[in-house]
Each structure stands twice: as C-alpha cells, then as structure tokens.
Design goal:
Helix 11 runs parallel beside helix 12. With 658 residues, this protein is an alpha/beta fold. It starts with a helix and ends in a 9-residue tail after the last helix. It holds the Pfam family F-box_5. This is COI1 F-box domain-containing protein.
Length: 658
C-alpha cells in the first residue's frame, strides 16, 4: 500500500474533488498561481471563478477575457478611462454591450460606474436576471437630467432586482425616492437598500424616508443617512422611526446615521460631550420601534444629537430582539447604570458580538466593567468620544473579554492616549486581530517607554488603523509598545490638520520607516485628505504642500508593500488636491508596488515617473472632479493623457514579473 500510494499523481485526484477545492479558494493571486500548474488546472480555475474585477482600457476589446463564463459577480467600476461614460467613445454601443454579456453570461451581481444614463441603458438589458447592483459615481449629476432618470433603465429591464447599493453614487435624494416609487413592483421585491451616502449634505428627510420604506415593505436591510437635527425642516424623529418600523417589519439590519457622523471634524477634547440640541427621540418611542422589529440582528443609530435615559429602551431591545448580534449607538446617554446597581440597559444584551459606543458622555469605567460582565461574548468593540473611560476601566474590560475580543477601536477618548490605549489592551495582545488607536503622544513619550513594551508581541494583529495629527510623527509607536507585529498585513493611516498654521516640519520624516520591522506588511492606505495647506507659493515662514508631501511619504520606498491607496492633501481655497513632484519621486522608488490608487489629480509628466516601477501593474487616479473639464486651463491629467500613461504602463517592452 505504501508503494502504491507513493505513485499517486495529482492528476489522479477526481475532478469533483478538484472542483470543490478550487471553489474554496478566494484570493485572486492564489487562484492565478494555481492556474499556471497545467492546462487542466487552468480550465478548472476559470470554470470555478465566481467573482471578477475588470481593469484595463475599454478600447482594448481584444483583451476582454472570454473564459470566465461562470462568473456571477462582475465589477466594471475600475475600467479606464476611469470616470468617463463607458459607451460614449464607441460608434456601436449596443454591440459592445452584447460583447460584454457574451463574455460573462452568468452575471447576477454588477458594480458599474455610471457617469450618465447611457451606461445602464445599454448594460441593463443584457442581464435581466440581475439581483444585486451597486452604482458608483463621484462626478456631479447632470442638472438637466430628469429626476430619477438614472434608475429608469435598471428598473425597466431587471425585474428580479433584490439589492440596490447607491452608497457611492452621487445623486439627489429625490432621485432615489421618486425613482423607487415609480416602480412599485421592483420596490416591493427589494430586500437590501443602501442609501447611506449621497451628494446631499442634509441627508434624507423624514418624508423621503417614509416614502421609500412605504414603497419597499419587504426590506430586510436598510442603510440610510438622515437629518436628525430638529432645527431643520423634515428632520427625522419619533414619528419617522415608527413609520420605518411599521413599513418594514422584516428588517434584520437597520442602519441610520446623521449627516454629522460622516464629518472628519474632531471636536474639542475638553468639551463635555453633550450636543446643544436634543434629538426628538424618546425612550418610549424606541421601545415601540424595537417591539415592531423582532427580527433585528444589527442596529446602528448614530443620531448626532442627545438621546437621554436610554437604558430602559435597551432592556426592551434585549427582550424583543432575540437575534441581535451587533449594536452601534451614537450620542446615547444613560445606556447603563454601572456595577453599583443590578444589571440594566445594554448590559442585558448578552447575545451581542459587536458593540460600538460613540459620544456617550456619561459612560464611566464602572459602566464599561459592567458591560464586560453582561456582554461576555463580544468579539468587536469600539469606543469613540467617551471622555469618562480611563486606562484602568479599559484594561479590566479587555481582561474580562480576553477569550473572545479580537477587534478593538479606541478613538477620541480624552483619557486614553496611544500609550494608555496600548497598555489597556495588554490582556489581549496575543489574540487581537484588528486595532485602531489615535497617535496622541505625551510630551515625554521618548523617555516614558511603555511598561511592558520590552516583551510585547502582537502575535495575531493583521490590520492596524491609526489617526495622527499633521506635523506629528509615527516614530513613537515603537516606544509605545507597537513594534513587534509579525502577522501585520495591512495598515491605514489617517492624517488630519491645518498645515497653514505650522512652520516647516521639525522632523525630517513622518516616520514610515518605523514600519519596516513588520515583515508581512503588504497593503497601505495613507489618507492625507484631511490635511490642508498652500498648494502654491506659501507666505514667508510657511511651508507649501509639496514639502509636506515629502514629509509624509519619506521612507515609503523602504517598505515592501504591494498595494497603496494614497489620498493627497488639499488647498481648499484653490480647490486643489494634486500630486506634487516630491511625492511622485518617492512613489516611483517603491520597487515592489503592484497596485497604486491616487485619490487626487496629477500632471502627466509626474505620472510618467511611475512607469519605472518594475512591478507596477495597476495605477489609477480617482477623485470626484477627475477628469478635468476640457475648458480647464490647468495641466492636470485628461482622458488622452491617461491613455498615454496606461500605454506606457502596459508597453510590451516593459517586463513585469509576476
């Protein structure tokens, strides 16, 4: 038997088993590597691929793959030239649409960039059995387009649609409310509706939400951005929430957030934590809502204004919504009494696996400890803007949940700077997988090293998210105790601040070099969109954004990252968010970079710097006002310059090793 088994070849594995194995592999690069083994494995990989994101230029139709006929989830939103109408450059758009359908006949889920109505006009008829559609558009809608016209072709041809996501689709609120109401049969079939973000800074008003939910009685998931501010006409209050619960009694996910929750503005840490206005939501109404939604599994209510004495409502939530697994509350006060009294409020929600508390001003260490005893299976926890929580309370909390807690976010908490946050997480350092902290340093951080940092290993930490003020450095991370993360694969850094009030950076570099100690780090998101400064010549004694970009990106060439998303800093007065020469030069030195998305604009000659990257295969500019209008006199990238850059990047003489 031993001799016989040693001669078994992988070709002897039954096709049914091989097909099952291939279908369980999700990573694209892994699947591509498997397909290179032999022709049989190539055919199996192509026949079992279920999701695909198309990149490349739409004019290169001869490169369109025709071997992925089993693909059900297709993403066309990355096709270049990005942001341009998909069919406008072709003389025969219907033929192109049929060609795409022929290559992917099994599509039931589609993501597509819709610059104008022509895209869905030609694509929607090709897949009448679409069940999920996500529309993407950062450009402003045409003011001359009829209200709701963007959805007409989709609703006319896709009668089996059950899920619609317009969270990244620039439109007016009335486009959605009137468009959905115009097709009652489609609205009745929708089970998932995501209208979380849109172009309106006011969010959806009360009558719009009531109209949408009335037209969609079978919704199971609803995500929306609303206007909870009672000072505005059409604010969302008691009556609106009751109407939503009555109109959609089968909801398992209800996600309602105020427009202010999307703001990047960080309030004063010394503020008491209460807003000047109270939301028009009382605990009795909340009790009634929870009673009408017995299937609720995930609830998000970030209302942006005070909601008082909520612990009785949360007890009612626990008694009526037995399936509840995830809860996020914003500006809810009095969510529990603390360990000095009997268990109450959110403490009784013992089935919670994810809990987020934002701007709960009266939350104390005792409350937090009580929550850790009641919600004993929490795996994810977020603490945002809760000034009453200290390192002691947070440490006891993590100690009590050390067997289950793997995902933690601590942000904008006055008593929890970076060092205190990391020390509070010591009980779960060998278990935590995802972490966010604010890089707020004490003045003597270099002298006051984290007490246990000498023996600190974040064994399972895979994703790290950091917030840091402009002008500060990442270098103290190692002193704070975050210097040994052998499993770290992805990092996101959010930088915010006004560089106009600051002189030249006192340090030579932002500190990206300190991340070189993480051997598996391969993906980075560096978001400087919250940094403002002078795009052109700065006044005497000040520094323009080009030097600040050099400060932020210095050392990035030493990281072995494969993917980078970079949001450029901005000059709000000039409406400019562009890549400068120092940034282009530093990015060009990232020798292992395979994918680069620049969320901003750039000049063509600066983008050409990137062609020298030996591994770079996918590079795009993405921003809401890109490409620039034809009558714009600036030298930023246009459609033709993007084409020239892509041609240089895909030139046959430029060998890109896999």
């Amino acid at each position: 038997m031993a001799g016989a088994s040693s001669r078994v070849h992988f070709h002897d594995i039954p096709d049914v088993v091989l097909t099952t194995i291939f279908s369980l592999v999700s990573k694209t690069r892994t699947r591509n590597a498997m397909s290179l083994v032999c022709l049989k494995w190539l055919a199996l990989e192509r026949s079992t691929r279920k999701s695909l994101t198309l990149r490349g230029n739409i004019r290169d139709l001869f490169l369109l793959p025709t071997c992925f006929r089993a693909v059900t989830d297709l993403d066309l939103s990355f096709i270049s030239p990005w942001g341009c109408p998909l069919f406008d450059s072709f003389s025969n758009p219907p033929l192109l649409a049929q060609f795409i359908r022929h290559a992917f006949p099994s599509v039931v889920s589609l993501v597509v960039y819709v610059r104008n109505n022509s895209t869905l006009h030609h694509l929607a008829p090709q897949w009448p059995n679409l069940r999920h559609v996500k529309l993407v558009r950062w450009h402003r809608r045409l003011p001359t387009a009829p209200i709701g016209s963007d959805l007409v072709s989709l609703f006319e041809h896709c009668r089996t649609l059950s899920s619609l996501d317009v969270s990244h689709f620039y439109c007016w609120p009335e486009d959605l409310s009137l468009g959905i109401q115009a097709y009652p049969s489609i609205a009745a079939s929708l089970s998932h509706l995501n209208i979380l973000k849109n172009s309106s800074t006011e969010g959806f008003k009360s009558h719009e939400l009531i109209a949408i939910t009335s037209a969609c009685p079978n919704l199971r998931k609803l995500l929306a951005i609303c206007a909870f501010d009672p000072r505005f006409v059409g604010y969302v209050g008691d009556q609106t929430l009751l109407a939503i619960a009555s109109n959609c009694p089968h909801l398992s996910l209800l996600h309602l957030v105020d427009t202010t929750s999307e703001s990047d503005v960080r309030p004063d840490l010394n503020h008491e934590g209460y807003t000047s206005e109270d939301a028009r939501i009382c605990y009795a109404t909340l009790c009634d809502i929870f009673a009408r939604l017995p299937l609720l599994e995930e609830l998000v209510l970030d209302v942006g204004h005070n909601v008082w004495g909520t612990w009785p409502a949360l007890e009612w939530l626990n008694s009526k919504c037995h399936r509840l697994k995830s809860l996020k509350l914003g500006h809810f006060h009095g969510i529990c009494q603390g360990i000095v009294s009997r268990p109450d409020g959110v403490v009784l929600c013992r089935g919670l696996q994810s809990l987020s508390m934002k701007n709960s001003a009266d939350l104390t260490d005792n409350s937090l400890i009580s929550i850790s005893h009641g919600c004993h299976i929490l795996s994810k926890f977020e603490l945002i803007g809760c000034k009453g929580i200290t390192e002691t309370g947070m440490r006891i909390f993590t100690h009590n949940l050390r067997k289950t807690l793997v995902d933690v976010k601590i942000s904008y908490c006055k008593s929890l700077d970076a060092v205190s946050s990391l020390q509070a997480l010591e009980p779960i350092r060998d278990r935590i997988e995802r972490l966010h902290i604010d890089c707020v340093w004490e003045e003597n951080i270099l002298k006051k090293k984290c007490k246990s940092s000498s023996a600190t290993t974040w064994t399972k930490l895979q994703h790290l998210s950091l917030w840091i003020a402009a002008g500060e450095s990442l270098a103290p991370l190692s002193f704070a105790g975050l210097d040994d993360c052998p499993a770290l694969e992805e990092i996101r850094i959010k930088v915010e601040g006004n560089c106009r009030d600051k002189a030249r950076p006192s340090m030579n570099a932002f500190g990206l070099r300190c991340l070189t100690v993480n051997p598996r780090l391969s993906r980075m998101m560096l978001d400087c969109s919250g940094v403002t400064g002078y795009a052109h010549t700065a006044p005497a004694g000040k520094t323009d954004l080009s030097l600040w970009e050099r400060f932020f990106l210095s050392g990035i060439q030493e990281l072995k990252i494969d993917e980078l998303d970079y949001w450029t800093a901005q000059d709000v007065d000039m409406n400019g968010r562009s890549l400068f020469l120092p940034a282009a030069g530093l990015l060009a030195q990232c020798g292992r970079l395979r994918k680069l998305f620049i969320h901003g604009t750039a000049n063509e000659h600066l983008m050409m710097f990137l062609v020298g990257n030996p591994f770079l295969r996918d590079a795009q500019l993405r921003l809401n006002y890109f490409p620039a209008p034809d009558d714009d006199t600036s030298t930023e990238m246009r459609v033709d310059s993007c084409l020239r850059f892509e041609e240089a990047l895909s030139n046959s003489s430029r060998h890109v090793p896999d």
